[in-house]
Each structure stands twice: as structure tokens, then as C-alpha cells.
Amino acid sequence: MSDYHLLFQYLEAAVRILLIGSRRGINSIIHWLYRLGFAEVAAWSKQQIAPNSEDQQMMSITVKQVTLD
Predict the structure, then answer these.
(1) Around 19, how many Cα atoms within 13 Å sit in the side-chain half-sphere?
(2) Per-residue pLDDT tens for 3-48?
(3) The pTM is what?
(4) Among 2, 5, 10, 34, whose Cα sits 20 to 30 Å from the Cα of 52?
(5) Per the domain annotation, does 2 fall within a domain?
(6) Residue 32 counted as domain residue
(7) Average pLDDT, stretch 42-61?
(8) How many domains is the chain partitioned into structurally?
(9) 8-43 core/surface letters (b: 16 or more CB in 10 A; e: else)
(10) Residue 3, domain member (yes or no)
């Protein structure tokens, strides 16, 4: 296998994880995912009102880098 293929054998991609729901529900999921080792609590964005949300649902997002093999 050439050096080129070894260098690019594993590529990374950014994956966005978006939570939409009540403020309390989002906080619960963020802390649950932290306990599972998925993401630090501080890695999530500040909650804000979800676009086009008639009932004022909140949203928070984080980005994870994943290896594509």
C-alpha cells in the first residue's frame, strides 16, 4: 500500500448532534450523555429557542469528530 493510501486511510468527518425539546429535557440528555462519556457538558451550545417553534421549544448542538474507515 502506498504512503498516500496509508495517510488517507482514516478520514475524519464532523457530525452535528442537535437536541430539541424542553430546557429541562435537554439538560437531562446532555448530562446523561456526559455520564456515558459521549461529550463534555461544556461542549454543547447555549440553549436557544428553536427556529419556527410555536411552543418555544429549545435547542442545543454539539459537534463530534468521527473517523471514517
Answers:
(1) 23
(2) 555 555 668 888 999 999 999 999 999 999 999 999 999 999 999 9
(3) 0.79
(4) 34
(5) no
(6) yes
(7) 95
(8) 1
(9) eeeeeeeeeeebebeeeebbebbeebeeeeeeeeee
(10) no
List the domain range (segments joined by +) for residue 44: 10-68
Please tell me the predicted confidence (pLDDT) of residue 67: 85
What is the DSSP track for 7-33? HTSSEEEEEEEEEEE-HHHHHHHHHHH
Element (H, E) at 65: strand 58-68
Instruction: For 52, list phi and psi in degrees, rounded to 5.
Output: 60, 25
- Per the CB < 8 A criterion, the answer to whether 66 and 10 are in contact is no
pLDDT at 51 exceeding the cut of 60: yes
